[in-house]
Amino acid sequence: MTGIDLTTWARGPMDELSVEGRIDQVARAQAVAVVAHEGQIDKLGVAYIGHPAAVAARFDPKEQTLEHCAAWLHDVIEDTSVDANLLARAGIHDDVIEVVKLLTRGPDDGDDYYRRIAAHPAARAVKLSDIRHNTDPDRTHLLDAESRERLAAKYRHALHLLGN
User: Which Gene3D superfamilies does the record cross-reference, listed alphabetically (predicted)?
Assistant: First the structure.
């Protein structure tokens, strides 16, 4: 990968990145997610990083680089000390950061959160993948009945607002 100008990768359209640029973005997104989520445990008692990994796995890293990278990072701003500025300093592409910011729920967002995501195709695709993983019966069967029903209602509402 010699001769590649790393400073240009975070500028310009994501779909114009070279193969090397796409590989670099995928590696950076995965590395940031792994470091940021280190030590976090999910509701099922397993390492949290498995969730962004599963969400990202639904997207081809070569053909859907934006979605793949954003999926790795979709909970980083919301659930860790990482912010958009740190993502930029880590060399994450501006388009990826935009999607991650859209996917970051604020305390006062309400239903506007889903409407904002629905208007952006890449953010919507990542959110749908996130919901699919969060509602996967192989995962939800481990939750108590009350938690399963609460999450099912939450995600039915989300899918409705996302146009599904």
Answer: Hypothetical protein af1432 (1.10.3210.10)
